[in-house]
Sequence to fold (143 residues):
Amino acid sequence: MSACTFDRVSEGDELAPFPLALTLQRLVMEAAANRDFAPIHHDAEIARATGAPEPFANVMLVQALLEAGLREWMGLDGRLRKLGVNLRSFAPAGAMMTGHGRVTGKRPEENGGLVDLEVWTESMGARAAIGTATVWLPTGDTS
Fold:
């Protein structure tokens, strides 16, 4: 993982896509770990009855995917300050969910600065979630 610094980031920079296969096992494990026992996340019949094609990722899994993509981009010296997300469509079992991000602004601070990003996930050809993030990055070469 190469560290990102405030100096090297520019508005419009895109993060590398961060994919995750949504297996039913992964959905069940994540929902259980977060104590989200809603059957729409593990029972296909109930999920379909609510209009979903299959059991689908909950918001905690979506946030975790976006945070992992941000962490991969900013490195261990960066700090996630804010992450907000809104779900727009289903990210169902059997699909691939991919996290994305784009730098939308920068604000210098002492020893670094804040970087604002547009973040989103895609699943089954649609934006499944959209949101924003703010991270703090250090100034200078950390290599």
